[in-house]
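Two folds, back to back.
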Amino acid sequence: ILSGIMSVNGKKVLHMDRNSYYGGESASITPLEDLYKRFNLPGTPPESMGRGRDWNVDLIPKFLMANGQLVKMLLYTEVTRYLDFKVIEGSFVYKGGKIYKVPSTEAEALASSLMGLFEKRRFRKFLVYVANFDENDPRTFEGVDPKKTTMRDVYKKFDLGQDVIDFTGHALALYRTDDYLDQPCQETINRIKLYSESLARYGKSPYLYPLYGLGELPQGFARLSAIYGGTYMLNKPIEEIVIENGKVVGVKSEGEVARCKQLICDPSYVSDRVTKVGQVIRVICILSHPIKNTNDANSCQIIIPQNQVNRKSDIYVCMISSAHNVAAQGKYIAIASTTVETADPEKEIKPALDLLEPIEQKFVSISDLFAPTDLGTESQIFISRTYDATTHFETTCDDIKDIYKRMMGSEFDFEEMKRKKNDIYGEEEQQ
C-alpha cells in the first residue's frame, strides 16, 4: 500500500520481494498443494478437496470494514478497479458456549435473544445516543466529556449489564482486551459509529472481503505503483541493507546495489531493529459444512470475548467459502486467531475450534509479533509492525499512516491524495 501511495506522491519507487508471490506475510496460498508443503504436511490433499487450483488460502485472515480506512484508501487510489468484493453475511458473538448474531441496528437489538427485554430498551437508547453523538457538538454529549469520561462510566449511565458490555466493546468497537473501559470514551464511541456506518452501507454485516482472497490487495497496489512509474521485482533476494554513517543508502541484491534515500520493510528484513512484543496463534481449518448456528452463512465472523473464556484477549474466527473463489465447491475455510497468553496456545484457541467441528484438515501457525525499535528518524529505515490477531484492517491502516507520517513529516491526508491523482489523470478520467 505504501509503495502505491509513495508512487502517487511522485516518489521513485523500487519494490523488491524475496518471495515469488505478492503480499509477504499476508499472502494467499494457491494451489492447495503449496499450503500442505508450507505446513510440512505429509502427502497431498485428498481427492475430496477438489482441484488444488480452486484454493486461495489466506495466511492472515482479515476483513475490510465497509466504511473503514482501507476501503477509503482503495477508493481514493482507485485500486477498486482491480478488485471485486462481497459482503460478509453475518457477525456473531459467543456467550455462554453458544453463538448469537451481533445486534447492530435498533430493530435487531429488539429482536435479539442475547438480552432480556429491559436490557434491550437500554441498549437501544445507548445505540441512539452513539448515533447522534458528534464530538463537535456539545449538545449531543448529555453530560459526558468525550475526553475525560471513561467508557465504563458511559455504560453505567445507560445501566448496561456485563454481557452487553462484552459484545459492545468486543464485537462492535472491536477491542481485543478490556483496557479501553478506563480510557476516555471518545475513541470507543467513534469505533461503534464506524461499525454502524459500515453496516448501514450494505446491511448484512459491516465487513467486505475480496473475491480470490486477500492476495489480490497487494497486487492491486503493485499495479497502482506501476501506473505511476514504480518498479516491482518478485523473487529478488535481499543480501544486505547498505548503511553509511548510520543512514540507509541502498540495498544489495545479487551483487548489485540499488541506491535509495528511504527504505520501507517488514520486520523479517531487519531483525536487529525490532523487538518481540508477543505471539499470535492462527489455525486454518478446512470444513465441508457451514458453521453451526450461523443460518448456514457462506461467510461470517465470530468473536469470542475474552471474559467469556477467562482470557485477557479475544479469540476471532473468520469464515469464507467457495462463494469467494477461495475454496473448492462445497468447502469452507475457517481461520481462528488469538494473541498467545500461555505456554499452550493450542489449548487457548480450543473454544473456537469446538465451534467448527468436524474439521477436515487444520494448519496451525504460531508467529512472533515484532515492533520496530528504530522509528527511522536517523536511519531512514521504516519498519512495519507484524499483523496482529484482529480480523479487520483498521490497526494495519493505523500503522500505514504512522509510517507515512514518520517518512513524510506530515499526516496522511486522503483529500490530498485525491488532488494528486487529479493532477495526473485530470478530472475527466475520474468520472
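---
second:
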Amino acid sequence: MTKGGMESVELFTTEGKGRGLKAQKEFLPGDVIFAEPAYAAVVFDSLTHVICHTCFKRQERLHRCGQCKFAHYCDRTCQRAAWLNHKNECSAIKRHGKAPTENIRLAARILWKLEREGSGLSEGCLVAIEELQNHVDSFGEEEKKELRADVESFLEFWPPHCQQFGMQLVSHVFGVISCNGFTLSDQRGLQAVGVGIFPNLCQANHDCWPNCTVVFNNGNHEAVRSMFHTQMRIELRALNKISPGDELTVSYVDFLSLSEERRQQLKKQYYFECTCEHCKKQLKDDLMLAVKAGESKPSADTVKEVVQLSKDTLEKINKARMEGQYHEVVKLCRDCLKKQEPVLGDTNIYLLRILSIASEVLSYLQMFEEAADYAKRMVDGYLKIYHPNNAQLGMAVMRAGVTHWHAGLIEAGHGLICKAYAILLITHGPSHPITKDLEVMRVQTEMELRMFQQNEFMYYKMREAALKNQKIQVMPEPSNENAPSLFHKKE
C-alpha cells in the first residue's frame, strides 16, 4: 500500500447517514490515512492577484498569465502545472471579456474535466462527481434563486464550441459546490484563500468529536526534479488510535459552540440532523455555560443579563474591528470582562470569546503582558473543552506561547510553544510550514530558557539589547475572520 493511498479506506453505506468511510487498517495519531489532490479548485475572487492559482500560496510577486491577464502563478513551474486546467478557462475569459465569479469558474473547471475524462470514476476517486450529494431538493427559495443566477452566468461564460451539458448536470455541479466545496488555505493555514472539490473527502461523515482531521498541504512545487516534489492536496490525518472497521469522521464545524448551536448550523449549511454522542448527550455544554461556583453563586437573572451583555458586546466589537478601531475593541473587552468575571465560570464560551479577542488585539497593539494574562486564561479554558488533538486548540496555544515570549515570560512561553508543537505534529505533520515555524520557535525558546535559568539578570540584559537592535516582531493585524472552516459554504 502506498502512503496516503485509497487502499487504506473502504466506502460503505449506513442507514440514515448515507455513504461513509471506514478504516481498513490500524492508524495511530498523526498518521496520514489518505492524501487527495483536488478534482478542481479556484482562488477566491478577492484574492486572485495575491494567491498562486496552482499551489494557493500567498506570494509577494506573482507571474501573470500573458493571455487572459487573470491567472497568477508563483513561477513558470506553477504556470506549467496549471496549463491543463487553465487552457480552456484562459480562452473562455478572453472571449467573455472578464473572469466570472469563483463559483462559475469552479463549475467550469469541473465540467471541462468531465469533457476531457468522461463521466464515471476518475483515477483515485471512490465516487464519481455525478454521484456526489447536491442537496438541491433541500434548498430554500433564496438558495434556489442564487442557483438559477449561477446557472445563467455559467451559460453566458461557457464557450459554444465546448461540449454542451444538460441543465440537470450543471445544476447538480453547483449543488455539489454549495455543500461539498472544501476551504483551501494559504501556506500558513491562517487564511481561507480558495475552494476546491475533493470527492473522497466528501464521503467522510461529520462528528462533533471526530477521530480525524483534514489539513490542506500546498505541496512543494519548487523541488521540481527531486523526490520531494509534491502536488497540492488535502491530507486526512488520524487524531486518535483508529482500529480496522472504525468509521472515519471529521468535524464540519468548530466545536466551541453549544450542541444546539452546532446542530442548527449543520442543519442550515449541510442539511442533516447531527446525532453524534456529544450532541445527543449535550456533552461539554455544562462547561461552556459554566457560572462561578461557591457560596455567592450568581442568580439565574444575573447570568442571563451578563450573557446578553456579552452577546451585545461581541456585536460592538465586530463593528469596531471592521473599522480598525483596536483601542475601542480593547476598551469593550475590558469593560465586558469586569462584568463577566464575578458571574461566568472559567470555561464559559462567552468569557472565552472575549478573552480570545482581547489577547489577539492587545498582542497586535504590543501590550504583551496584559495580552499574555488573557491568553493564558483562554488556553486553560480551551484545554478543558477541546479534543486534546484539535488543530484550532494547537493554533490558539501557539499564539499564546508567542504572546508570552513577547512579554518576556520565557518559561510559560516555552511551555506553551512545546504544547502547541506536540498538537500540530499530529494535526499538521512535521513538514507543514506552520509546524516548521513552531519547531524553530521551540529551539529558540529552549536556548533562551537555559540562558534564563543560568543567569536571570544577564538574560534580561541581553534580551533588552537584542530587542533594541532588532525591531520587535509585530504581531499580524487581528483578522475579522474565524479560522478557515472545513467546508466552504457561500453565505
